[in-house]
Specification:
single chain, about 60 residues, 2 helices
């Protein structure tokens, strides 16, 4: 048998997702099931992620921008 190592595959310079400039943190917020359903429906109707929807709401309602 040929015991030569394969020469394809593996890591490549510059490949992969680039790191974010500011790292995001996860939070857990207790909500009523009905509020979760409404929030998920809003995100789906607006084709946006939960993170983007909440960030947009915070920025719109924040007094200290």
């Amino acid at each position: 048998m040929n015991m030569k190592a394969k020469q394809h595959g593996g890591a490549r310079p510059g490949a992969g997702r680039k790191p974010l400039k500011i790292k995001k943190k996860s939070v857990t917020i207790p909500l009523l099931p009905s509020d979760i359903d409404r929030f998920n429906a809003y995100c789906k109707a607006n084709s946006t992620s939960q993170s983007k929807a909440l960030t947009k709401w915070i920025n719109r309602h924040s007094k200290s921008k």
